[in-house]
Amino acid sequence: MDARLDETTLTVSEAADRVGLTAYTLRWYEQEGLVAPVGRDSAGRRRYTGNDVDWLMLLTRLRRTGMPVRDMRRYSELARQGDQTLGARRELFEAHRDRVLARMAELEQDLAVLNFKIEVYGQLERAG
Fold it and tell me: Taking the mean position of all CA atoms in its chain, how far away is CA 53?
């Protein structure tokens, strides 16, 4: 048994539920190199630790904010290389933050249009 499994661990389904992914997607993340190989129990089934779940939560947030899988893969590779990649990881996150902020500004403009249309339709209904 893997030494990391001394702590309480989760099955694929439990870990997937915890982070809001399907078990299929969680396995795909591992196949894509986004997740380091996960420990296994004596029957060969994946067992996820708290650190694994924390990593998956970060990945789901990155994906939810629109980070491309190639950038997530790059970040994962850099993180596994250790502290000598801190600057590269920061730069990757700064570039992504800039994209997120730009998208938020676009969404704010889109929301303003929606609010305007809702107000116009409300006025027309009240006048009708």
Answer: 11
Go through the chain and tell me how many residues it has.
128
Q: What single-letter DSSP state applies at residue 24?
A: H
Asked if 40 and 2 touch (Cβ cutoff 8 Å), the reply is yes
- pLDDT tens-digit profile of 37-60? 889 999 999 899 999 999 999 999
Q: Is 91 left (phi over 0), alpha (psi -120 to 50) or beta?
A: alpha
> Of the candidates 6, 64, 21, 65, which has an alpha carbon nearest to the alpha carbon of residue 35?
21
Q: Are the beta carbons of 23 and 56 closer than 8 angstroms? A: no
Q: Using N-to-C axis directions, what is the helix angle for 69-81 and 50-64, rounded to 10°?
A: 140
Q: Residues 43, 77: contact at Cβ < 8 Å?
A: no
**pTM score of the predicted model:** 0.82
